[in-house]
Every structure is written in C-alpha cells, then in structure tokens.
Design goal:
Layout: E1 17-21, H1 26-37, E2 41-48, H2 55-68, E3 73-77, H3 87-105, E4 113-114, H4 119-132, E5 144-147, E6 150-153, H5 161-170, H6 187-194, H7 201-228, E7 229-230, E8 233-235, H8 236-240, H9 244-255, H10 266-277, E9 283-285, E10 291-296, E11 299-304, E12 312-315, H11 328-334, E13 339-344, E14 350-353, E15 356-359, H12 360-366, E16 378-381, E17 387-389, H13 409-414
Parallel strand pairs: 1-2, 1-4, 2-3, 4-6
Antiparallel strand pairs: 5-6, 7-8, 8-11, 9-10, 10-11, 12-13, 13-16, 14-15, 16-17
Helix pairs in contact: 1-5, 9-10
C-alpha cells in the first residue's frame, strides 16, 4: 500500500535538528513516526488547549510515547476565555507564539519547525481563498515559509489525510482524532467533511493542476509588482496613474512583505488610493502593529517610526578626545568641552547648517532624513543645553568617519 512507503521530502536534512508541532492527531503522529524511521533528530512542541474532554488524555499518551523514544517535549497549557473571541484565531496565535518562544530561547539549535499540514489542508485552503475572493500571493499552502524569523516546513503536503491515518494504524502509531473536526459549524470543517473527503484521485489531480496554473500566473504578477517597489516603497505618481483594481493588487502585494498582511481591508486601500488622488497627506498607524503608512519625498511607504528616550553623558578621559569615531575636525569641535550629552534632538532647536542658523525640523527636510528616524535622531549638546553637533544623514553611506560623526542608528533603535 502506498501509505506504508511514505517518505519525507528532501528538504528535511538528516544532519539537522527540528522542532515538531504535534497535537497527537494522526497527521502529526505520522510525521513523528517518519522522523524516527529516518533517524532525524527532533523535539516536540505540544499545547493543551483544554477545549475538549480528551485534551488531558492526548497529553498523557503523547508524553508516554515520547518517553519511550527519548523525545524531548515542550509543553504549554492554555485556557480559552470568551473575550478571546474567535477560537481558531486564538489557538493559531498561541501556537505560533509558542514556536517562536522556543526558537528564541534555544537559538541555533533547530533548523526549522515542522508542521503536519497535508494535501487535504492544501486544497481546503485553496477553496477558502477562492470562496472569499481574497487577495493572496500564493494559492494553497507553501512547503516552506518564514514567519517572525522562524522557518516552517510542511513535509506532508503530497499525502491525503486518510493515507496518514492508515499509515498510523498499519504501523501501530498511537493517535487520537479531534471530534470537533466533525462539527460543520466551522467553515473549514464543512468543506473538509462534505467536499474534500469525497474527492476522487482524478478530481484531486485536476484541482492541483488548477492551483499550479494559478500560482504560475501569480509568479508573473508578483514579478511585475516587485519592479514597482523600489527600496521598499511605492512611487506616488506611478500609483496615481494606476487603475484602482491594479493599485489594490499592488498594495496587497506590498502589504504581504509585512507581518500584518491579513489585517487590511479593500476599503482601507480604497481610502489610501483616494487620498493619493486628492494629494492629501497620509500618516497613520496600522491597527495592531508598530508600523505606519506615510508619504515622504514623493513615495508611499510602510515602516516603523522609532521612539527612544536614550541619554548619554560622556566626559573627557584626561587629555584624550571623547570616545567617538570622528574625523579630526570634529574632535576639535568638542575640544572646548569637558563633557557632552547625547539624546534625541529637539526639532525646535536651531543649528548652524550650511552657513545658516536653521531649525532642526528644516534641516531634516534638507538632508531627507527618513520619517522613521526623526524621533530618535541624536543631537550632541553641551552641559548647558546648547546643540553643538547634529550628525548628517546619508542614504548610501550611513556609517563613515570621513565626513561626519558616526552614530550607529540600529543600536539606538534597540534602546528601550
């Protein structure tokens, strides 16, 4: 029987260690068995959601199985509350946050997290995408994805769910079936139980061919969008020349480069398109994220606007210069001061720039300082509060000791 000869995709490396998301269902237990049979090193991440009477039984049986094969299990217990609203979204967030937490704690130990999504899940996702008429950059499910700096691999996408169950039964692999999967009040369950389950192999092949052709067109469309996104931003004038539907598709692709992709509606993008046409300024925070949409220097951009209240006071060490990477002439600027203070510059302060006294806010515009950095850009002050140095911003050369004082902006961003 085909299911007894299942093999892992070549993307799984025998010399690497993996984390496996395991629910004790037949899909994830089949994956665990295949990893053991292929002598691949792995640990398990298990979450007890306490949503069903069998949850504790599943935890107990999984731990017993893991102990038998000397497998390490990371366990988490959570309890659903009414204020969490959508159970599926809540559980998904808990799950991926848990994977990320493990990866951050055990850095460089795992190559990736393995997820036991199967062929039925892939087709189910595709059907939902088509029914909702939602914008996607890819139809179905990808074998490999990155989410919050964690790599996820789905090695079982070529196998039907029923084949994975038969594999477990024939090989005496313990598992339990979640009875809530048969509750058709959930859209996914209804599609799974009333449609996908009854598909013939011929019908499956036809759907997979449709998905393949759709993704081929998507790749061509995505390449055209990539050409319009320069330095992670969109040219406003080019956007204004686009048809509204083309702009919506472009902007959705642009959004897909960020973690809040699914939190955006077409109405919101329509509103942005209208503001572009009316030459209105755009600067608004994206709900549920730390990012903003704004226009600067003729470009529509999505980025963080960093904030930090750092404060450094530096004093001279004997007759030595202050400890900066600076050109000699800037050492001369600070030579008359026994101490200097560095903190975010006030945009209302004045500074001598190109032979004129100018307000800092005007200087920011002159040197085209990105909006993202304006709240954290450093100023060097004397003890009595005089702004004695304002570092320049250069897009192509951010760090140099040839023309201006060096500040490592990436480190200032990290300051809490």
């Amino acid at each position: 029987m085909k299911c007894l000869k299942m093999k892992l995709k070549k993307i799984i490396k025998t010399n690497k260690k993996y984390l496996v998301g395991c629910s004790f269902g037949p899909d994830s237990m089949a994956l665990v068995s295949l990893l053991l049979n292929n002598n691949i090193s792995f640990d398990i991440a298990f979450i007890n959601y306490h949503l069903r009477d069998e949850s504790d039984y599943e935890e107990k049986e999984l731990l017993k199985f893991a102990k038998k094969y000397n497998i390490k299990v990371f366990k988490k217990e959570v309890f659903y509350k009414k204020e969490d609203k959508n159970i599926e979204s809540w559980a998904r967030k808990i799950r991926y946050d848990f994977f990320k937490e493990i990866f951050e704690k055990y850095k460089n130990e795992y190559e990736a997290t393995l997820i036991a999504h199967n062929l039925d899940d892939l087709i189910e996702t595709y059907i939902l995408q088509k029914e909702r008429n939602s914008y996607v950059t890819f139809y179905g499910l990808k074998t490999l994805i990155y989410k919050d700096d964690v790599c996820y691999i789905r090695p079982l996408l070529s196998y039907r769910k029923k084949d994975l169950e038969i594999y477990c039964i024939k090989n005496n692999i313990p598992f339990n079936i979640d009875k809530s999967n048969f509750d058709n009040k959930y859209k996914r369950n209804k599609i799974r139980n009333e449609y996908i389950k009854n598909l013939s192999d011929k019908e499956i092949k036809s759907i997979l061919l449709e998905i393949k052709e759709g993704n081929k067109k998507k790749r061509i469309e995505n390449k055209s969008f990539e050409k319009l996104i320069k330095k992670n931003r969109l040219n406003v004038e080019k956007c204004k020349k686009m048809d509204i539907n083309d702009f919506i598709n472009l902007f959705y692709y642009y959004l897909s480069l960020f973690p809040f992709f699914k939190n955006f509606s077409k109405n919101k993008i329509n509103d942005i398109y209208l503001k572009l046409f009316l030459n209105k300024n755009i600067k608004e925070k994206i709900d549920g994220s730390s990012y903003y949409i704004f226009i600067e220097y003729g470009y529509l951009k999505i980025d963080k606007i960093y904030e930090s209240n750092y404060y450094f006071e530096l004093t001279r060490e004997g007759n030595k210069y202050f400890r900066f990477l600076v050109d000699t002439k800037y050492n001369e600027i600070f030579s008359n001061y026994d101490s200097i203070i560095i903190h975010p510059v006030s945009r209302d302060d004045f500074y001598s720039y190109k032979g004129q006294e100018k307000r800092v806010s005007k200087i920011f515009i002159d040197m085209k300082l990105p909006t993202s950095y304006r709240k954290i850009w450093p100023g060097v002050y004397s003890k009595n509060g005089e702004l004695i140095y304002l570092p320049r911003y250069m897009e192509k050369v951010r760090y140099t000791n040839k023309s201006f004082l060096v500040f490592d902006i990436e480190n200032l961003i990290k300051i809490k």
